[in-house]
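We treat protein structure as text, and this decision shapes the records that our systems exchange. The remainder of this section carries one protein's record, kept here as part of the documentation:
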Amino acid sequence: MNASTMLTEVRNTLTEWVGGHLIIEKKEQDDLDKTIMKLEDFVFQHRGETVDDYTASTLLQLKGEGKVISDEATAPLPHSTFEIPLEDINDVKKHSDELIVLTERASYHINYNSN
C-alpha cells in the first residue's frame, strides 16, 4: 500500500468516526502514552520543509476535548488536539473499530467507541 492509499484509508475511517470517542495509544521505543478524546474534527497539515527532525512536515491533527493519561496523573489534552506525524508512514491497518498507524518513529493504535 502506498502512502497516498494509506492516507485515504485514514481519512475515510476518521470521517466515519467523527462524533465518537477515541482511545489512542502511542508507542515510541519503550514509552507508551494513552489519550482519550471525543473526535470533533481532523485535518491533514503540510508544513513543507522542516529545520529539524522533531517537527513533522506532514501530520494528522485530531481535534476534540480529551485527556492524556499517564502513570503519574491525568491531564487535559493540550490545545484539544492530538498530532500524528505522517512523513515516514510505513503502514495502516484497519480492523472494525481499530485503526493502526505505523511510522518510522512510533505506532499509534486508535480504538473507536460511538458513545
The radius of gyration is 14 Å. The chain has one helix and ten strands.
